Amino acid sequence: MPFYSASLIETVQSEIIRDNTGILECVKEGIGRVMGLGVPHSKRLLPLLSLIFPTVLHGVLHYIISSAIQKFVLLILKRKTYSSHLPESTSPVQSMLDAYFPELIANFAASLCSDVILYPLETVLHRLHIQGTRTIIDNTDLGYEVLPINTQYEGMRDCINTIRQEEGMLGFYKGFGAVIIQYTLHAAVLQITKIIYSTLLQNSV
User: Fold this and answer.
1) Cβ(21)–Cβ(35) under 8 Å?
2) Strand pairing of 136-138 and 146-148?
3) Which residues contact 163 (CB under 8 A, 6 or more apart)?
4) In this predicted model, what pLDDT tens digit does every residue of 59-95 receive, in sequence order?
5) d(C-alpha 91, C-alpha 88), whole Å
6) 106 with 74: CB under 8 angstroms?
7) Can you tell me the distance from the alpha carbon of 82 to that of 104, in angstroms, rounded to the nearest whole number?
8) SS3 18
């Protein structure tokens, strides 16, 4: 968990003030977070004990949702494939695609659904981890200035109530466009891979 906090800070930190960090910088910062060493943090920094519940909750829910959706989608795809190819013999190309691509599609659907469903909880989790770390982020609304993180959440419940009162329900979905772009590119890569794979198999037959 402390290493997750350190890597999260490196991810959202503005490029303007970011130093040239090494490969082991997240490990160093994580150890410093546990030991109370390194860069001095503000008094608003939440203790690691108060971050255990939201971090574990997010991880467990993400695993449960993704596993359930993956099995469900995989079951549907396999039944669809079996029923569509039952009356006739399938080509070697189609057989290879049916063997590998349902698993990829199921993983894609599971990851997409779990990330979308749990995005509000992930927003809360990230804000709790970053609070009090003297992190400065880019102002993505304007695009030409940076903003300090000055939140004063007392815990998970206070964070949820504050976001709902001050920013509304849309406050839980700030930055959601990045998720849309991520999975759009992921879907495009899957489709291109399928086309290339089909072409290679047809040429080899």
Assistant:
1) no
2) antiparallel
3) 123, 124, 127, 171, 172
4) 999 999 999 999 999 999 888 776 665 555 555 556 6
5) 10
6) yes
7) 17
8) coil
Beta bridge partners of 136: 148
Catalogue the E-assigned strands of the chain. Answer: 136-138, 146-148
Residue 20 vs residue 65, higher pLDDT: 65
Going from the C-alpha of 96 to that of each of 4, 79, 169, the distances in angstroms are: 38, 16, 45
Global confidence as pTM: 0.79
* Pairwise CA distance, residues 177 & 174, whole Å: 8
Rounded CA-CA distance 46/34 in Å is 12
Report CA torsion sign: 11, 15, 21, 23.
positive
DSSP 37-88: -SSPPPTTPPPHHHHHHHHHHHHHHHHHHHHHHHHHHHHHHHHHHHHHSSSS
Contact 46, 157 (CB under 8 A): no
